[in-house]
Design goal:
UDP-N-acetylmuramoyl-L-alanine:D-glutamate ligase; globular; 2 helices; alpha/beta; three-stranded parallel sheet
Length: 113
């Protein structure tokens, strides 16, 4: 039985290796890392020992596999996550700045042809 359920976005984050590099400049990125506020929240709930589950969707792609594999490893119930063959998993490209802010560009539900 699940103690805590959440519902919402499940995306991966790809971030700059160095701080203070704007997204419009060429540079090096690292990732993908599982992300999205609901996904981060419920993964933390599972890691501290509670029965946790998420309702959401990912693409049936490598980024979706990244998310699902991590959550399963950490003990999150992903039985209510829909894997879409028609849409890609959301991706956020992020740069962090030394003073604490960040800038991100998010791509949601790219339709495949």
């Amino acid at each position: 039985m699940v103690d805590v359920w959440t519902m919402g976005e499940m995306i991966v984050e790809i971030m700059r290796v160095e701080n203070d590099v704007p997204l419009y400049q060429p540079g090096i990125f690292k990732g993908p890392f599982p992300s999205g506020a609901p996904a981060i929240f419920i993964d933390t709930v599972a890691r501290i020992g509670h029965q946790a589950g998420i309702i959401g969707s990912v693409g049936k792609d490598d980024f979706g596999k990244n998310l699902l594999d991590r959550m399963k490893k950490d003990g999150v119930n992903v039985s209510q996550v829909f894997e879409s063959k028609d849409c890609s998993t959301g991706v956020a490209f992020v740069t962090y700045y030394s003073e604490g802010s960040r800038n991100l560009f998010t791509i949601w539900e790219i339709r495949r042809r």
